[in-house]
What we know:
Elements: H1 2-16, H2 20-31, H3 36-42, H4 49-89, H5 108-122, E1 126-127, E2 133-135, H6 136-139, E3 165-167, H7 173-181, E4 186-195, E5 207-217, H8 222-236, E6 243-250, E7 253-262, E8 279-288, H9 290-295, E9 304-311, H10 312-320, H11 333-336
Parallel strand pairs: 1-4
Antiparallel strand pairs: 2-3, 4-5, 5-9, 6-7, 7-8, 8-9
Helix pairs in contact: 1-4, 2-4, 3-4, 5-10
The structure holds 3,4-dihydroxyphenylalanine.
3,4-dihydroxyphenylalanine (DAH) binds next to strand 8 and strand 9.
Amino acid sequence: MDDIKRIVDEVTQKIRSANIEILENIKSEYLGKNGVVTKILKSLSHYSVEDRKKVGFEANRVKSVIESGIKERKEVLKKASLAEKMRKEKVDCSSIFYFPFSKGSFHPVLQTIQDMSLVFKSLGFSIAEGPEIETDWYNFKALNIPENHPVKNVTDTFYLNDMRNLLRTHTSPGQVHVMEKQKPPVKVIIPGRVYRNESSDASHSSTFHQIEGLRVDKDVTFLDLKAVLTKFIHSFFCRGLNLRFRPSYFQFTEPSAEVDIQCLFCKGRGCSLCKNSGWIEMLGCGMVHPNVLKAVNYDSEIYTGYAFGIGVERVAMFKYKIDDIRLFYENDLRFLKQF
Length: 339
Ligand code: DAH
């Protein structure tokens, strides 16, 4: 009985400071096949009936004391290791606010593309993209632009060295890519960067951005085009803004129009921004020419469509009252930080 008492003291002492590995060792040292307590229990037959009861009872008590001691210690160790893990992996959210640099922001041109796209998305358009390097077929021929058109000259268009590929001069070739891949109905916008061989000034740049729009289905009319562009302009700029559709000419649309909006700054009275006309030219549009539909094997007897092309920088300049397009490309942080 003295031995048993000594064992209890000894083992509780050991358990108190043990780690997981040592706990396993303790378990086998006392309760394993040849463990100290197991041996006592095995030797019970050597005792008198009277002693056997006492020793057996005590040995079993020690056994459960050891078992519950190990269990409790394991719990303690588990909690401590979790707490340690939490301490190590803790993220100090407050430290983010001490980050010494200001957060970046999207370039105003990209912001304008995103804002415009959001309005078109709400009108049911999906978004597609086309390549910036194009062939004659996509940029001109499939769009009904004749072989001898001056826009194809190297003085207007950037050709790659092989002269077979070129940098797209507008996003309209995106229409052809979409229609080649997809059967009608089609309702997409195609935002992207375009290139033209021209010298830059306050309102021209050799690279700028456009958003192309295309809808093809049965029974699409000019009225649908007017409705969708009016809705876009009113949602994007302001409700009730005056706009006008002016007859125009593009090879890939017939009839064609350009849309002007009333100058927001002088309310149409005339100012430097609208060159005293009271109107600002916003976009080109029209009904997709049957030859364009034929080029992509759409049946022009069944399907009609409208298309439009909007200059993103123009829209951004008007929206943010910027009077020089070159500001977008100079990467002057004093300019960019304002957006
Ligand atoms: N591609 C024309 C340009 O760059 C813009 C344009 C006009 C696009 C009429 C169209 C359209 O889709 O229908 O000047």
